[in-house]
Design goal:
Structural class of chain A: mainly alpha
Oligomer: heterodimer
Radius of gyration of chain B: 25 Å
Strand order of the largest sheet of chain A: 1-2
Largest sheet of chain B: none
Number of strands of chain B: 0
Structural class of chain B: mainly alpha
CATH superfamily of one domain in chain A: Cytochrome c-like domain
Shape of chain A: extended
Number of helices of chain B: 10
Number of helices of chain A: 37
Helix content of chain B: 55-70%
Number of strands of chain A: 8
Largest sheet of chain A: 2 strands, antiparallel
Distance between the termini of chain B: 70 Å
Helix content of chain A: 40-55%
Radius of gyration of chain A: 43 Å
Chain lengths: ~900, ~260
C-alpha cells in the first residue's frame, strides 16, 4: 500500500522565507491602508489646513498693522502713557500704601462678614425647621405652644445678630468702594483704550479661532493650528427618496470650501475662495449655508469627501453631478416661482422668457406652463386675409420672407407646404366668406393720393403702431432671442390686401376675437390713410389663379390635413377643425432628469453622449438625430447659441422634486399674481411702450428728443393709482390722462378677468393691498384746502403751468404739459401724491416734475413742510369734485377747483 | 532490517498526523497571503455602488444576486415554471439523494480521483460546468435587454436582436394545435427513453455488469432520470443557440 499524503519530512521543512515575505507584504499593505485612509482619501485636510494657515497669517498681519496704527495714534499713545503712570502711582507712594493697607483690611473684613453672615444663615435655617415643626404640630392637633416659643426665641436671636451683620456688610462695601475709587483712574483709561482696540480684538479673535492651545494647565502650553475636521450641514427635512420617504441630506462641501461664507478671501484659489456675491446669495435672507447647505443649488455628491471627482459627483451612477457655471441657475426654478428680475438668475430667466414666447409650449407640455396662449395668429379666417401664393411660400420657408419671425422652419418635403396651405385655405373658407360679407372694400380708399399716403405714414409713426411693429428693415421694439415678437410690416403689401388691412385696423377683434392686436380708435379717414400707406410697403402680388387652383385640389386638401396634424400646426395657431388637437411633442416636465439611454442620438457620431450636448444640438438643429428610419418633426427655430444655452439651463431645471415649503421662496398669491401678470404683459407687449418693473419702454427710442411725448413709464403704478380707476381704464382707455399726446393708449378690449390680472400684478409689484380709496372731505383740517390752493397757485408752485385741469390748459408748449389733475380724485392714491410731491425724482428718475421739498415756503401753515404737502394733496384730491358741467357754465373765469374747495370747506 | 521496515510501514500506514505543524502552519501562511490580497483588493477597488434604487425606473439589465444568475440564465431557455421551479427542485432532491445512489465507497477520508472518476466527473458537469458557467454567462455576458455581449463590446441599451425563434413542431410542418402538443410530448418521452437506454449501456460498459446488479433497478432509475434531466439543459441550450428552437413541447399549460 502506498503512503497516502503523508510526508515524514514535512516537520523538518522551514517556511521561514515564505513567512518573512508574507509578513513584509502584510506590513507594507497595512501601512499603505493607513496612508490611503488618512492622506490619499482625505484631500480636504490639506485644503483646510492651508486655509487655517492663511486665515491665521492674515489675521496676524492685520493685527500687527492695527497695532502699528494704534501706536502711531497720539491719542492711543497718550492713553497708554497715562495708564502706565497711573499704575505706577498705585504701586508706590501714598496711593500705593493706602491700597496695600486697604487690601489687607479687605481680607479681614471679608472674614468678619462671612462669619456674621453664616451665623445669621444658621439661625434662619433653624427658624425654617422650627416653623415646620410648628405647622406640623398644628396640623396634627397637638399643642403648638412650645414650638411657637421656640420660634420666638430664634427670631429674637436673629434680631440680635443682624446689627453685627449689617455693620460687617457696610465695612465690606466701604472698603471695596474705596479700592474701586483708587483704581478708578486706571479703569477709566482702560475703557478708553478698549474703545480704540475694537479692530485689534477682532483680529485677535480670528487668530484664536484658527488655533488650539494644548498642554495641561500650569505647564508650558503650545499653540497649534486647528486640526482639520469635517464641516457638515445636515438638512433633516429637505429630501424625499425614490420611495417618498424623508431622508437626510448631508453636505460636507465646506470641509474643502471652508472660506465660502467668510469675507475677504476672494483672492484665494478654489476651493478656498469666498462665494461670489456672497452677500447676495448667502445672506440670511437668501440661502444661508447653515440652513441650505450647498448641493441644494449646486448639486454634486455632498456627503462624499474622498476625492474631488467623488465630491463633485462626477462619478458613474451619481445622478446629480455638480452644476458648473450658469447651469447652477437651473435650480433657481425649483424654489423660486418668479425668476424674472431675480439677481443671479438672469440666464434661467431668459431661458424661461424664450420658452414662453417662442412657442415651445405649443408642442410641449410642462407643468406650470400649461395655460400659455398660442403664440401664432388665428388661421380661422385666413382665406380672407392672405395672398395664396404668399401663404405657400411662407409655410415653405418663413424666414425667407421675415428673417426674424418666430415661425420656425419645418423643412417640408416637396408638396407638403402646398398641401398644408390647401387645408388651411379650405378649412377657413366658410368663416372667411362670412367675414368678407360684413367687411366690404371701403369707399373713399385713395391709394394713389400722395397726400393721403403721407398722412398715413405720419399716423403710423405717431399714433402708436411703432410700439409693437417695425415699419422698415431692422426696426423693432420688443425682440427676444433675435425674434421680433410682433411682425415687421416692411413687406406687408406682399402678404395682405387693403380690404383686410382697413377692417383689421378699424376693429381687429371683428376678424379675430382673441387677437392681441388692439384698436387704436382710428377714425375712418385715419384708417383709410394708414391702409393707403401700408399698401406702399412691399410689392403687391398679382392674382394667381394657378396657385388658387392647386390649393383647391381635393388631393392636396386631404394630404394637407395630415401634414397640419402631423407637424402640430394647431399648437401655435387656431385652426378650424383642429380645436381639440393635443400637443404633439414629448412632455418636458421631467426632461432635466432624463437618463442618457432614453436620449436618441441617431447615427451622428460627432455629438458627445451627454445630456447637455444632446439638448443643445436638438435645439440647434432639431433634425440632427433623424435617421433613415427615425423621423424627427421638431422644426428649426434658428436661435442664437447663447439663447439655446439659456433654454438648456431652464430645461435642466425641469425635474420632479418635492421641495418642502420651508425651503421655497415666495409662493404666495402675490408671487402668483406677478407671474400671471408678467405673462400677460408679455403677451400684449405692454413693454413695447411702457417701462414696467424697470424693463421695456422700447418705443422711447423714437422720442429721444422729447421723452415727455412718449408713453409714460409705469414704475410703481400699483402704489400710484387707485385700483378701481385702473380696472376701468384698462377696459376702456378712451379718456386718456394725456390727451395732448399723439401716441394713443390703444383699446385692447380687456374683459374683467384680464384687467384684474393687471391690477393685481401692479399691486403685487408695489407690495400694496388693493385699497378702496375714499377721501373724506370732512376730515380735511380747516384751512388746509385754502393753504393747498395757495401753494398750487402761480404765486408759489405754479402747478397750473404744466398740469392740465379739465378744460383749462397750461400756457406752455405741449411738451411741457402734465396730467390732468381734475382726474386725480378718481385716479391717484393720496398717499402716493404725498410721496410724489416730496421727491418726484425718487419715484420716477428723470421726471420733469420739479421738487419743492425740502425748502417749502415759510409763510404757509407755519412753514411745516409735512402739513403743506398734506394740504396740497387734499387740495388736489378735492379738485375732481368740481363737476365738469359746472366748470363749463362758469367758464374760464372760475378758478379751477375753487368750487370744489368751497364745497369741501362747507362740508368741513 | 525487515523488522525496522515493518515498523516504519506501520507508522506510515497509520493515517493520523498532527495538526501542528502540518495543518496550522499551512493555514497561518495562507491567512497571511489572503489578508494581503484582501487588503490590496479593498485599497484598489471601491465597493461597486450603483444609483439609488428607484421603483419608477428599474435598471437595465435587472440582475439577480450573482449566485442566482445561473437560475436566471436558465430562464432564457425554459419556461419559468420549469427553469424556476422544477429544475431547482430536482437539483435539491438530486443533491439529497447522492448518498443513497452513490454506492462507490472509495475515497472516504482521503482524496482520490482515479477511484471515483465517474462520480466526480458527473458532479463536475453538473456543478462546475452547468451551474458555474451559467453564473459566469449571466454575470459577465448578459447586458441590457438580457442580450449577449462579448466582454469587449459596449453594453448598448438600444441593441436589437432579431427575434426568430420557432417551436420545433412548427419547423417540422405541424400547424394543428393538438398535433403540435402530441408531437412535442412524443419527442420528450423519446428523449427520456433513448437516453435511459444509452445510459444503461454506458454504465455496463464503464462499470461492468456486476456493478449494475449491485446498484439495482431503483437506484439506476433515479440516477438515470436525474442525469438525463440535467443533460437536458445543455441539449436545449444547444438547440436554441444553433437552431433557434424555442420549445420542443408546446401545450396550453406548460412548455419544454
Amino acid at each position: 500500500m502506498a503512503v497516502r499524503g503523508v510526508d515524514p519530512d514535512e516537520e523538518k521543512k522551514s517556511y521561514g522565507t515564505v513567512f518573512f515575505v508574507g509578513s513584509i507584504l502584510l506590513v507594507v499593505v497595512g501601512l499603505w491602508s493607513v496612508f490611503d485612509d488618512n492622506i490619499t482619501r482625505r484631500v480636504w485636510k490639506v485644503h483646510q489646513a492651508e486655509f487655517t494657515r492663511t486665515d491665521y497669517e492674515r489675521a496676524a498681519a492685520a493685527l500687527a498693522k492695527e497695532q502699528e496704527r494704534l501706536n502711531a495714534d497720539p491719542k492711543y499713545a497718550e492713553l497708554v502713557k497715562q495708564r502706565a503712570a497711573e499704575v505706577a502711582s498705585l504701586e508706590s507712594g501714598e496711593k500705593g500704601a493706602r491700597l496695600a493697607e486697604l487690601r489687607e483690611l479687605q481680607q479681614r473684613v471679608e472674614v468678619e462678614y462671612f462669619d456674621a453672615d453664616q451665623e445669621v444663615k444658621f439661625v434662619k435655617s433653624e427658624l425654617d425647621e422650627a416653623w415646620y415643626e410648628f405647622d406640623h404640630a398644628v396640623q396634627l392637633g397637638q399643642d403648638a405652644g412650645p414650638y411657637r416659643r421656640h420660634i420666638q426665641g430664634l427670631q429674637a436671636q436673629q434680631r440680635a445678630l443682624e446689627p453685627a451683620l449689617e455693620a460687617a456688610r457696610k465695612k465690606r462695601v466701604d472698603v471695596k468702594a474705596e479700592i474701586r475709587e483708587i483704581q478708578g483712574g486706571v479703569r477709566k483709561i482702560d475703557d478708553q483704550i478698549y474703545a480704540l482696540e475694537g479692530d485689534k480684538r477682532k483680529w485677535q479673535r480670528q487668530m484664536d479661532n484658527a488655533t488650539v492651545t494644548v498642554g495641561p494647565e500650569g505647564f508650558p502650553q503650545f499653540t497649534l493650528y486647528k486640526v482639520p475636521s469635517i464641516q457638515q450641514v445636515v438638512l433633516k427635512d429637505f429630501d424625499r427618496n425614490n420611495f417618498d420617504q424623508q431622508v437626510e441630506r448631508v453636505d460636507r462641501c465646506q470641509s474643502c470650501h471652508i472660506g465660502i461664507n467668510r469675507s475677504g478671501f476672494d483672492d484665494l484659489p478654489q476651493p478656498l475662495t469666498t462665494h461670489p456675491k456672497r452677500t447676495v446669495f448667502l445672506s440670511d435672507a437668501a440661502h444661508p449655508p447653515r440652513v441650505f447647505g450647498c448641493t441644494v443649488c449646486h448639486e454634486g455628491q455632498g456627503e462624499a469627501v474622498n476625492s474631488l471627482a467623488q465630491a463633485h459627483g462626477n462619478v458613474k451612477f451619481w445622478e446629480h453631478p455638480l452644476l458648473e457655471g450658469n447651469d447652477v441657475q437651473a435650480n433657481c426654478v425649483t424654489c423660486h416661482l418668479n425668476v424674472a428680475g431675480l439677481e443671479g438668475a438672469q440666464v434661467v430667466a431668459r431661458g424661461q422668457q424664450i420658452f414662453e414666447q417662442v412657442g415651445c409650449t405649443g408642442c410641449h407640455l410642462v407643468e406650470g406652463y400649461g395655460d400659455i396662449p398660442k403664440v401664432g395668429p388665428s388661421l380661422r379666417r385666413v382665406q380672407a386675409k392672405l395672398d395664396p401664393a404668399w401663404m405657400v411660400q411662407w409655410i415653405q420657408n418663413p424666414r425667407e420672407f421675415r428673417s426674424r419671425t418666430r415661425m420656425p422652419h419645418f423643412y417640408f418635403e416637396e408638396g407638403d407646404a402646398v398641401a398644408a396651405a390647401s387645408y388651411l385655405w379650405a378649412a377657413s373658407k366658410k368663416e372667411a366668406e362670412e367675414w368678407l360679407k360684413q367687411s366690404p372694400m371701403p369707399e373713399g380708399y385713395r391709394p394713389d393720393d400722395a397726400a393721403v399716403v403721407e398722412k398715413g405714414k405720419e399716423l403710423a409713426r405717431s399714433v402708436g403702431c411703432l410700439g409693437c411693429h417695425g415699419l422698415s428693415e431692422g426696426e423693432f421694439t420688443t425682440r427676444i432671442a433675435g425674434k421680433d415678437l410682433v411682425p415687421n410690416l416692411k413687406d406687408i403689401a406682399a402678404k395682405v390686401g387693403p380690404r383686410w388691412i382697413y377692417h383689421w385696423l378699424r376693429n381687429p377683434k371683428a376678424y379675430n376675437p382673441d387677437t392681441r392686436m388692439p384698436s387704436l380708435r382710428l377714425s375712418d379717414d385715419e384708417a383709410l390713410a394708414l391702409t393707403a400707406y401700408l399698401m406702399t410697403l412691399g410689392t403687391k402680388p398679382e392674382p394667381n389663379a394657378e396657385v388658387v387652383a392647386r390649393l383647391e385640389e381635393p388631393a392636396n386638401i386631404a394630404r394637407g390635413e395630415t401634414v397640419v396634424r402631423k407637424y402640430g400646426c394647431a399648437g401655435c395657431h387656431d385652426i378650424p377643425g383642429m380645436e381639440k388637437e393635443s400637443r404633439i411633442g414629448v412632455e418636458l416636465t421631467t426632461f432635466g432628469s432624463k437618463p442618457l439611454e432614453e436620449l436618441f442620438f441617431g447615427n451622428d457620431t460627432s455629438i458627445k453622449h451627454t445630456w447637455k450636448d444632446w439638448t443643445f444640438n436638438k435645439i440647434h438643429n432639431p433634425r440632427v438625430y433623424a435617421t433613415e428610419r427615425v423621423e424627427q418633426l421638431m422644426p428649426h427655430f434658428d436661435l442664437p447659441e447663447e439663447d439655446i444655452k439659456a433654454l438648456r439651463v431652464l430645461l435642466h431645471g425641469f425635474v420632479e422634486r418635492k421641495v418642502p415649503e420651508a425651503f421655497k421662496a415666495d409662493h404666495s398669491e402675490r408671487a402668483r399674481q406677478i407671474l400671471e401678470g408678467r405673462r400677460q404683459i408679455q403677451e400684449y407687449n405692454c413693454v413695447g411702450c411702457h417701462v414696467i418693473d424697470g424693463e421695456g419702454g422700447y418705443v422711447r427710442k423714437y422720442y429721444e428728443e422729447n421723452p415727455t411725448l412718449a408713453p409714460p413709464p409705469l414704475n410703481g403704478q400699483g402704489e400710484k393709482v387707485q385700483a378701481n380707476w385702473m380696472f376701468g381704464f384698462l377696459q376702456n382707455p378712451e379718456n386718456p390722462i394725456r390727451p395732448w399726446l399723439k401716441v394713443r393708449m390703444p383699446t385692447f378690449g380687456f374683459d374683467g378677468p384680464h384687467a384684474d390680472v393687471f391690477v393685481n400684478y401692479f399691486a403685487a409689484l408695489s407690495e400694496v393691498e388693493i385699497p378702496y380709496v375714499h377721501v373724506d372731505e370732512a376730515k380735511v383740517p380747516a384751512g388746509y384746502l385754502e393753504a393747498g390752493r395757495t401753494l398750487f397757485s402761480d404765486d408759489y408752485f405754479e402747478c397750473g403751468s404744466c398740469h392740465v385741469r379739465g378744460d383749462k390748459k397750461p400756457d406752455g408748449p405741449v411738451e411741457d404739459w402734465a396730467p390732468d389733475l381734475n382726474l386725480a380724485r378718481q385716479r391717484l392714491n393720496p398717499d402716493w401724491i404725498e410721496k410724489w410731491i416730496l421727491d418726484p425724482q425718487k419715484l420716477q428718475p428723470g421726471t420733469k416734475m420739479p421738487s419743492f421739498y425740502p425748502g417749502g415756503p415759510e409763510d404757509i401753515l407755519g412753514g411745516d413742510e409735512k402739513k403743506q404737502i398734506e394740504a396740497l394733496t387734499d387740495y388736489i384730491m378735492a379738485l375732481g369734485l368740481q363737476p365738469a358741467t359746472a366748470a363749463k357754465a362758469e367758464g374760464e373765469a372760475a378758478e379751477p377747483g375753487k368750487e370744489g374747495v368751497e364745497e369741501a370747506n362747507k362740508q368741513g | 532490517m525487515a523488522e525496522a521496515q515493518e515498523r516504519s510501514r506501520t507508522i506510515v500506514v497509520d493515517d493520523k498526523i498532527h495538526t501542528w505543524p502540518h495543518l496550522v502552519r499551512g493555514e497561518f501562511l495562507v491567512t497571511i497571503f489572503v489578508m494581503v490580497a484582501m487588503t490590496l483588493w479593498s485599497l484598489l477597488v471601491d465597493a461597486p455602488l450603483e444609483e439609488p434604487a428607484n421603483p419608477a425606473r428599474t435598471p437595465n439589465p435587472s440582475k439577480a444576486p450573482w449566485y442566482f444568475l445561473g437560475l436566471q440564465e436558465m430562464l432564457v431557455y425554459f419556461d419559468p415554471w420549469y427553469a424556476g421551479v422544477v429544475l431547482p427542485t430536482f437539483i435539491i432532491i438530486g443533491l439529497m439523494v447522492i448518498p443513497f445512489i452513490d454506492i462507490n465507497a472509495k475515497g472516504n477520508g482521503y482524496y482520490t480521483f482515479k477511484e471515483r472518476k465517474w462520480e466526480i466527473l458527473t458532479f463536475v458537469i453538473g456543478f462546475h460546468i452547468l451551474w458555474v458557467v451559467t453564473i459566469i454567462i449571466g454575470t459577465f455576458f448578459r447586458g441590457p435587454g438580457w442580450n449577449l455581449f462579448w466582454p469587449w463590446q459596449r453594453w448598448d441599451p438600444h441593441k436589437v436582436v432579431a427575434l426568430t425563434n420557432v417551436d420545433l413542431p412548427y419547423i417540422v410542418g405541424l400547424r394543428d394545435y393538438w398535433a403540435q402538443a402530441g408531437f412535442g410530448l412524443f419527442l420528450v418521452l423519446l428523449y427520456y427513453v433513448v437516453s435511459t437506454w444509452l445510459f444503461y449501456k454506458w454504465v455496463i460498459w464503464i462499470k461492468g455488469k456486476e456493478f449494475m446488479v449491485r446498484w439495482g433497478a431503483v437506484r439506476f432509475a433515479i440516477t438515470s432520470f436525474l442525469f438525463i434531466t440535467m443533460i437536458g439543459l445543455p441539449v436545449k441550450m444547444f438547440l436554441r443557440l444553433v437552431f433557434n428552437i424555442k420549445y420542443i413541447m408546446v401545450t396550453p399549460w406548460l412548455n419544454i
